[in-house]
Amino acid sequence: VTTELTEAELAPVVEEAITRWVAAGADEAFLRGLRFELTDLGSGVIGQTGLNKIYLDRTANGNGWYVDATPADDAEFAVDGPGYLAWAAEGTSAAEGIDLLTVVMHEMGHQLGLPHDGSIDSLMRESMAEGMRITLPQGGSGEGGVLGAFAGAQDDQEAILNGLTVFRDWADGFGDSVDGYFGSLTLPLLDISIGEILDQGLD
């Protein structure tokens, strides 16, 4: 288990995450355009999404990261859970940290416009635990593919709102300066201003 994640450890895991999302129908060029930053995200947060950027807590909020040396297979997670969730065997290194691959794929899911999902075995669930890996359903791309199944019946306005939530998270902390520049700007297709979004949230 890695107590402080490095760029060198992250890189092959990002490559595998891209491979899996592309197999599910995501756009490879878009995913390769995402940037990553290792930082201190504060209490209770291990990953966060910004505008074309993913932030990861260096220490997984003190839990440590499990960095899979062979991320292309899931052999370390051999204990079946419900659906697409699997667990590492007790006493193994994979059981002692937060699975970096799962978290990177989760944050990429947000970049692709997917909201949190309440299903226990969903990659887009809100919380992760040590020793847990969640995989994508098997299937091809296209309208009926995996990515479409995640998105469900989400209409255009819901997709826009999800994107604006990402913008709000990125802008959080800029405070009055952002509101001063954009507060009165009304967004197309939505009867709401950016200032209102920053004030009320869209969770």
Tell me the distance between the termini: 33 Å
Q: Helix proportion of residues, in percent?
A: 25-40%
**What's the β-strand tally?**
8
Helical stretch tally: 7
What's the alpha carbon Rg, rounded to whole Å? 18 Å
Largest sheet, if any? 3 strands, mixed
**Net shape:** globular
Strand content: 5-15%
- Helix vs. strand class: alpha/beta
| Sheet with most strands: strand arrangement | 1-3-2
Mean pLDDT over the full residue set = 81
Unreliable stretches covering 5 or more consecutive residues: none
Account of the protein in words:
- The protein is α/β, with parallel strands linked by helices and 203 residues long.
- It is built from seven helices and eight strands.
- It has helices at residues 7-23, 28-32, 100-111, 146-151, 156-171, 176-182, 194-200, and strands at 35-39, 47-50, 53-57, 65-66, 79-80, 85-87, 98-99, 132-134.
- The strands form three sheets. Strands 1-3-2 form a three-stranded mixed β-sheet.
- A hairpin with a 4-residue loop joins strand 5 (79-80) and strand 6.
- Helix 1 (7-23) crosses helix 3.
